[in-house]
């Protein structure tokens, strides 16, 4: 059953659509970061007579519940908050440069952003207030002056570049990024 089929059945049963449920959940205080999915499911079962599958479809539509997947853009934006905001332009330049080579998909986690060529990871970006780390997957490549082995920093890549200032994004760094993309 598709998510839309769930919503159609819910609308036929209750007369309400996901936006109506979002408003009702907000009014009951069920959209906060500390709200557990089980609490929302129980509310939907008790108050509306929905089954677990239909309730879970609505939980996913609420989108603001802790533990739900945030949209990619929101997860990326969250990585550049506060003292890390000055790295956003550098990150955007990295991604833009990588996309000159071809399609690049972004897969953010809570602590770093993976850059993928199709489904193959070729780089990761991790920012702190004081540094942007660029991890590159370059198997069989000996490090030049700028490259260091990734070591225990991140086992999904082979090399690491540490940028201490946004101006450290040089043509050499962008060339290493291009090489990692091509190797993927």
Query: How is the main sheet built?
Result: 6 strands, antiparallel
How large is the count of helical segments? 7
Shape: elongated
Side-by-side strand order of the widest sheet = 1-2-3-4-6-5
Low-confidence stretches: none
Spatial separation of the terminal alpha carbons: 36 Å
Total beta strands: 6
Order of helices and strands: HHHHHHEEEEEEH
Give the domain tally. Answer: 2
Overall average pLDDT: 87
**Which band does the percent of strand residues land in?**
15-25%
Structural class: alpha+beta
Helical residue percent band: 40-55%
Radius of gyration: 22 Å
How would you describe this structure in keywords?
DUF5655; DUF4287; DUF4287 domain-containing protein; about 180 residues; about 45% helix; six-stranded antiparallel β-sheet
Description:
The structure is a single chain. By secondary structure, the chain is of the alpha+beta class. It has 2 domains: 3-62, no CATH class; 72-183. Helices cover 43% and strands 16% of the residues. The protein has helices spanning 3-14, 18-27, 37-48, 52-62, 72-78, 88-101, 171-183; strands spanning 105-108, 113-117, 120-127, 132-136, 148-149, 159-163. It has a 6-stranded antiparallel sheet with strand order 1-2-3-4-6-5. The longest helix is centred in the middle third of the chain and has 14 residues, at 88-101. The two termini are 36 Å apart. The mean pLDDT is 87. InterPro entries: DUF4287, DUF5655. Residues 78-182 form the DUF5655 domain. This is DUF4287 domain-containing protein.
């Amino acid at each position: 059953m598709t998510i839309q089929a769930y919503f159609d059945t819910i609308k036929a049963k209750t007369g309400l659509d996901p936006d109506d449920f979002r408003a009702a959940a907000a009014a009951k205080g069920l959209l906060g970061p500390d709200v557990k999915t089980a609490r929302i499911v129980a509310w939907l079962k008790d108050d509306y007579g929905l089954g677990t599958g239909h309730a879970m479809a609505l939980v996913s539509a609420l989108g603001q519940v802790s533990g739900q997947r945030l949209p990619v853009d929101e997860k990326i934006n969250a990585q550049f908050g506060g003292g890390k905001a000055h790295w956003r332009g550098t990150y955007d330049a990295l991604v833009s440069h990588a996309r000159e080579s071809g399609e690049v998909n972004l897969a953010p986690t809570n602590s770093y952003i993976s850059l993928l060529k199709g489904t193959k990871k070729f780089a990761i970006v991790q920012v702190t207030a004081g540094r942007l780390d660029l991890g590159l997957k370059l198997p069989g490549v000996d490090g030049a002056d700028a490259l260091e082995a990734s070591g225990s920093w991140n086992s999904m890549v082979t090399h690491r570049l540490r940028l201490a200032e946004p101006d450290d994004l040089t043509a050499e760094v962008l060339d290493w990024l291009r090489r990692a993309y091509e190797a993927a």
